[in-house]
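Each record in this resource describes a single protein on a pair of labelled lines. An example record follows, reproduced without changes.
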Amino acid sequence: MARIAGVDIQNNKKVEVGLTNIYGVGRATARLILADINVDLSKRIGDLSEQDISAIRKFIEDNLTVEGDLRKETALNIKRLMEINCYRGSRHKMHLPCRGQKTRSNARTRRGLAGKRGIKKK
């Protein structure tokens, strides 16, 4: 297993897909990383040399914000929105969707199951 940015990546995965296990790296970013380092997209993690893995590690450390730092930055951004009492911050406080979705019939993941139970008839 290769360890990149504090995440273990399985040897049987392709490099492009394996890099997406790192929080903050998606398919597009993984392709950019591999194109910059000149690594073939069809290779598997287990087939990479130690030089390739160290080059990927160095590129991510130098150019990207990933894992713990990115999670902390996101949490601080949400906390700032709540402190300044903007609309998005108030939606975060009330555990409601803050990107304009309707909440009358959906939004179960944000609102929970309480609204689904309904009112009992007498």
